[in-house]
Amino acid sequence: MVRPENKFKVITKSLFDKVGADKAIQNVLMGKIWNLGATPLTLLLVIWSLSPKEQGYYFTFASLQALQVFFELGLTGVIMQFASHEMAKLEWTNENVLAGDERNKHRLISLLRFTVSWYLKISTLVFITLLIGGFWFFSSSGDKASHSLWMIPWLLVCIGSTLQMFSLPFIGIAEGCGKISEIYAMHFKQSIVSSIVLWIGLLCGWGLYACGLQILSYVAVGCLLYKKVFGAAFRDLWSTNHKKEFSISWKNEIWPLQWKISLSWLCGYFIGQFVHPIIFKYSGAEAAGRYGLTLKIVDSIAQISYSWVTTKSAIFGNYISKQIFSELFILFRKSLFRSLAIYSSLAVVFMITLIAFQEHESFLSSMFHFDFSIFSTRMIEWKYALVITLNSGMFCLTLAVATLTRAEKKEPFLIPSIAIGLATLVSASTFGVWYGYQGIIIANVLISLLIGMPCVWLIYRNFQLRLIK
Fold first, then answer.
1. What are the tens digits of pLDDT across the range 81-131?
2. Cα angle at 69 between 62 and 210, to 5 degrees?
3. How far apart are CA 285 and CA 401, in angstroms?
4. What is the 3-state secondary structure (H, E, C) of 31-68?
5. pLDDT band, residue 435 (cuts 50/70/90)
6. Which of 188, 278, 293, 312 has a beta carbon 3.0–4.6 Å from 432's, enabling a disulfide?
7. Where are the alpha helices (DSSP H) in 142-179?
8. Which residues sit opposite 100 in a β-bridge?
9. Hey, is 442 helix, strand or coil?
């Protein structure tokens, strides 16, 4: 007789196999499934525990926190790609350290030491900039009576964001060295603990303080778990006497790729995060909260779906290094198809639920004896939510192609990112002031259709023709 827990494992494994979910994707999915379940609870607690004004601060915190991309300059992705290429001639030993070609190992050591030094410096700059910039923005955008709502919470967010940024080189090196499954398992545990900390904070009436405590708990758990994942390898790499003749040249190797990715990431901020501060400043905290809540749900769906592609980044780089191009495109197409299928399914469920809440609120309230207006009034109208969902689907496709092409240690999305970023900056600064979030949403989807999608197709087609001759 099969034990119930064993039967569950067999069924789960069979389901994962059918959707092409390897160990790395399974760990990602566990984290995303947790977030999918945790996000509604978090949003419910945000609605119940925070005032509409506090909700606006809650989501604007995240947008201003994303300003750190202006300092990180895309180096995390570069680290992972360079590490994955060096792993072509390295392997893991039973002692959980790296062994193999001497040149590759010393280049990896060089990469580790350079990136740790880099992040130590820019993390300090991030803290100073976020702290001062955030105090200036919120002070100039709100009334003096609101200062007590955000001042100390924003300080905690700045400290947590700085520590989280300093951890990025360690994460990037580990992922590039093949510890993808372990790193995502670590992220899963971090998500659980940090979510619980946030919930406790909201339930206890700590308000926006819960935001800062969530980030700090995420970093603390990561530090404890990283030692098990990469601790032995890190100690070995850090203590090895480095041979400078095998050093990676930042000027000749890293920077030619980094500056292109950094511009793409900077433009990505204007594409994805710049809208919140604009809405907050010109439409108020409540409008920013409604937009932020809707976008958070859609982003959660997107993050689940593109896990099928982003977890393959190091594998893509390894295939390109070994020139296994046919297998590369087979893997990419399968991953992309599954990614878009998952996104479409979850997006349909979300839209049906939102339409039901907003169009049949009185019927649902009378049937279940519960006031559903608390949900419908805290999110934007379903027609605009549908446009956001379509735009996010196009972003999933863009991210998939970018993950594939960047595995070659090149950045073909530089010009499109600049064009889309500038167009978004202009549209948000004009339509956002004139028409609020409605104008921004319509403008964004038009930019994606007219600029984004044609560029994605041309980049993918040229990449494919160049590799498969």
1. 888 888 878 888 888 888 888 888 888 888 888 888 889 998 999 899 999
2. 25
3. 35
4. HHHHHHHHHHHHHHHHHHHCCHHHHHHHHHHHHHHHHH
5. confident
6. 278
7. 147-166, 168-176
8. 90
9. helix
3 state SS of 51: coil
Does the pTM of the predicted model rise above 0.85? no
- The first and second tokens of residue 3, run together, are 């034990």
Give residue 390's identity as a one-letter amino acid code: L
Q: Are 123 and 139 in contact (CB under 8 A)?
A: no
The dihedral formed by the CA atoms of 384, 390, 392 and 393, expressed in degrees to the nearest 10: 160
DSSP H or E stretch at residue 98: strand 98-100
Burial of 429 (0-12, 13-18, 19+ CB in 10 A): middle
Structure tokens that stand for 239 in this block: 């203590």
**What three-state secondary structure class fits 92?**
strand
Kindly report the length of the chain: 469
Q: What is the 3-state secondary structure (H, E, C) of 213-243?
A: HHHHHHHHHHHHHHHHHHHHHHHHHHHCCCC
Look up residue 270 and give its amino acid: F
Angle, helices 102-141 vs 75-86, to 10°: value is 170
Residues contacting residue 300 through CB under 8 Å, at least 6 positions apart: 32, 35, 36, 39
Nearest to 293 by CA among 357, 339, 222, 344: 357
Sign for the pseudo-dihedral over CA of 131, 132, 135, 138: negative
| The two structure tokens encoding residue 280 | 């907050």
| Residue 265 tokens, joined | 């990431």
